[in-house]
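Protocol step 4 of 5: obtain the predicted structure for the target chain.
Materials: sequence only (see below). No template structures provided, no constraints applied. The aim of this step is simply to have a reference model before the mutagenesis design in step 5. Sequence pasted as it appears in the construct record:
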Amino acid sequence: MDPALAESVHQTFQTMAADLQGHSTSISSARTDIVAGAGEFSSALSAEATIFSTGWSDGLDVLSTSAGLIAHNTNQLSLDLTKVDRGGSIDISIVPQVKVP
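Step 4 output (structure tokens):
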């Protein structure tokens, strides 16, 4: 992959990972506000609000981690297709690319 394109993909997923992590925190904060705003019904709402916010927070954490992994792994490996086709051989070697600062 072209290094400029790889950098664009990396930045996009890195930003997505950070954004998703931020939303996870805001859901927990919103849960507290919702329960507090329920007034006399807060005790009836509290357990369900916790389950709801935990589900969303866990889901967003998984998405954030996945986006971070995609960002980190973008353009890290390459496959030499000429070696795959040479003589009908099935020998596939994956060569890691070294990033030079």
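Step 4 remarks: The chain is about 70% helix and 5% strand. The chain has a mean pLDDT of 84.
Proceed to step 5.
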